């Protein structure tokens, strides 16, 4: 394999990235979030003095605080409160910065209130307020952040680009990208020193990409250029990575060419994103060519690059090749990491080879690799798919005993596994545990349980769950309605399904082809062919084109019930729209011709080629 030969010529260290936003350099637990060494908002977290007031030595002749934990910081704070004369706001600000750096945001806010609002007479400066804005943002309390922004003006202080960048990051993290973009457009109105910079745009672009809003990210890129703000490799790599995740690899390569033409050299992150994008599309020859180009440009693949390849190979069922890549890595001194092994383990699970999957899991433990929540969830999912719930639950109990907190995916996987075995009570119990804990169930959790209840004919439970979902703050679309309508039809409660379907306009919902097909199948099964045909006409009038399943379903219903003339008329009409019979329809027509019920001259369609 050409790829293998080239792999043997170079190796370094990198790891797989699967989440959107700023593509970066360190794997963190199941979500696979990375924190770049060029992170846009490392503000107040060990970045440069200009953006980190807690380390601004020029503001006070005394050396900055060097606390390593909250206890040390707390002792220092108590000591400062007792000092006479009282330390300046500068010294308190330095300590608050250290507490924020330790990620004790609530403590920093509490101490800030104590020194400024409880009669101590200390007036915060811009550095102090920036730290508190950042703390509120880190806690996703944007109301608090903006109240501190208002305090700038009340105290006659000038917010700067750092202040506004923190707010933009907070809005983006809170999935309020439109508000963040609006703030960027208004920044210069805040006064001198508030012109958007590369951090501003980079933060907004990362937030847009995280939500899959690639077009908006590219708009921000163009807006940067209009504002004479030169994008850097991180900005381009962020968008390229997001495009590749959405399999828009051609667009990603257009940006790749653009950045090179502007003299912005791509880095390992850029190359790995594009390499992984090609692998995901199965374009192995092009990936090989690109890998060679990467090496010739002096960019050595590292563990993330290799892990990206292992992941794509395993998802494509190429377990042998995936193992070969790992062998090459090891031989070249590049140690596979948690992501590498997780990808291989998931590949075996997808093929149902749980013994080998468990072998990889045990190897990780033996080698001292970090076995995270994602590792356990992969193996639990594999056992659930094989209906080996005892094994799955043993792993679940093991991870909780080790102090790991199962996430929503872990719980949802177990709920689905119990439903497959018909163990509805166990599924409901697992769902109840998730509802009272943290994290909470998401739309996928509800979808899995709703589908499980419907498949196990627990329709009343399904209706109750659906009512609970409608009363929640979760946003969901037509797919969950389709699950319930299908369940109602299967349970022969067609009238209830009709009522739900008729409620769509009042809910602002538009049925899709699956909705119509479910109802047409149910009506045809019950012998209500006129109503089924009327529904077929109705969907076409509303611009929803029937698919092969819809057409074959209604034709089979007519043929099965000897409505032959209507079937022939419908087939001839559908032929003008490209109708193609499936195997079942073609066989029924052939059998009816053999039985003399259809004219042998009637050859309406040919079987769809495989």
Automatic annotation (TrEMBL):
Classification via InterPro entries: Mito_RNA-Proc/Resp (IPR051240), PPR_rpt (IPR002885), TPR-like_helical_dom_sf (IPR011990)
Listed Pfam families: PPR_1 (PF12854), PPR_2 (PF13041)
Signal sequence coordinates: none
Chain residue ranges for the region called Disordered: 46-65
Record PROSITE patterns: PPR (PS51375)
Presence of the UniProt keyword Methyltransferase in the record: no
Domain of life: Eukaryota
Keyword set, alphabetical order: Repeat
PPR repeat residue intervals: 125-159, 160-194, 197-231, 232-266, 267-301, 302-336, 337-371, 372-406, 407-441, 442-476, 477-511, 512-546, 547-581
GO molecular function: mRNA binding
The family this protein is said to belong to: Belongs to the PPR family. P subfamily.
Protein name: Pentatricopeptide repeat-containing protein At1g12700, mitochondrial isoform X1
Record lineage: Eukaryota, Viridiplantae, Streptophyta, Embryophyta, Tracheophyta
Gene: LOC110757288
